[in-house]
Amino acid sequence: MRYAILTHGGAASPESFSDGCVAAAEAARATLDRGGDALAAALAATAALEDDPRFNAGTGSILRLDGTAIEMDASVMSSDGRFGAVTCIERVKNPVLVAARVMETPHLVLAGAGATAFARRVGFEDHDPSTLRARERHARAIADLEGLGDGRHAREAPGWRRGPPGHYFGFADLCAGADTVGAVVRDAQGRFAATASTGGTLFTLRGRVGDAPTMGAGVYAGPHGAVAATGIGEEIVRRFLAKSVYDWVAEGLAPARAASRGLAMFPDVVDVGICVIGRTGHVVTSNRSMARAALAG
């Protein structure tokens, strides 16, 4: 195997969106063909997913519960141990590319207004990621919280209780997918990279941080492979999912078996998906439908 590229559109994302994942994987392959490494290819793939408004990342990210804020998270890790992430960043087109620039600093993670200010300093222009689809989705979600909706988001709504008029609080055991997008890549020189990017979960308070920008939870890469996870961020962080799966691969477990063991860590009600690439194999798997693509050569 000279190279392998895996992309996903998030746990529980419609499989009909897999064309977007294929296009992202093709962008990664084109980057490799031009001499780029695994890191550059994974960034190209994830930026393509962020630019597809069907996915909850970059343009198309969902609104927070306040109905106005869009706070995005992204991270990238390469097999030489470098890591960069942004969390709760606002008004940028491609959070994952900002995360890659964080890798050039002494820091691992930049948050909130500081992350947005950093993006401006290194040349990322102001960008409004909101879409009509995101606003309509938010309106349906709030309607379901009020008990007046069409039931599309009823499974998530019971996890919240009503506060003052127009306000909701009380995070409980939510079980809906977060639509985190991501990629893992192995290049012909045996280097690995993993990325993640998300607009957050459907019912999200401002300032929430999930698995996507958390090293070892949403992504992990090392000399033995790369892992990207998607699903309920709080549950993924609790299980340190990406690093756990990576460690099993490093111990000699085949990627498919390591991914299956990772899925088995979660109860059936929790949406979760995993992309894993090792030195001799790769797999994309999920306990729900999930848009995905795989290229190898």
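The above is record 1. Record 2 follows with the same two-line structure.
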Amino acid sequence: MAEPDDEVPRRTTIYDVARRAGVSASTVSRAFARPGRVSSATAERIHAVAAELGYRRDAVFRPRAPSRTRVLGLAVSDITNPFYFGIIRGAERAASTADFTLMVGDAHESADAERRMLERHLPLVDGMVITSSRLSDQDLRGIARRVPVVVLNRKVTGLPCVVPDNARGIRRAVEHLGTLGHRRIGYVAGPEASWADGVRWRAVREAALELGLDDLRIGPVRPTVSGGRGAARSVVEHQLTAVIAYNDLLGVGLLRGLQDLGARVPEDVSVVGFDNTLSAELVGLTTVASPAVLLGETAALYIVNLVNGTAQSRDALSVLPVRLVSRTSTGPRR
């Protein structure tokens, strides 16, 4: 009777490594395929266990090699809004310095369009900066499980975020109007799904309460020049002498709409915008200056660090300073 062949040793698998290291198989896979997604301590432990067990990453058992595209995604809510010009410039500058290419996607102020755009872009990028998102926090955290994500112009718990100091900027605007003698401050609101809009409206209410002023909310209004133009009638009907707009586009539209109705700016109504875009400068709109270029640069640099595994934290919050720029659209109450 023939002697049986010597028993062939069982090949060490990814599951053996996972059990010995005390982690999941998917974590082991990431440690080899995408090391930037695993902490350095965990990766070192996994590699040490793999070496000890003789784990072989051959053609059959090796996790798929990392596919680095060196492309970063930047999602904006409306690419025609001048506010995003500075953000795109800053993000492109930071990406280029780090030898990455920037790819920009437009969400058209729609959660559904944003979701479709991200689904197209995610397989093509190493990381994504998502600006002024209309998606839920849960959706954004789900995206962050697929690629590194930095959220810009919004706070989402558990994710790194970069925002302008909305509350301080609005406070300065309300103080400015109060100093000019206005006792009732209107706020022309932007999209309901906008995190920044909610923060700015709350800041108007808090500042008005502290300063002994009255406030009134108009909207929500589409954050465009035509949206502001349409809101001008409500400003006149409520006999407001001062209004703060969600953004500069709304502010410019208010200037045009008030002029159409025969109201003088600033003699009858003072108007303040937010962002300090070129359009605000061209029409003399008083506004809160948001550091758009620095916002884009900061967010892109952070996503580069996340992709490269050098970020100090995966849930940091960066709040960048703003300032009030006074122009001819505000004046004393008559």
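DSSP finds twelve helices and twelve strands in the chain.
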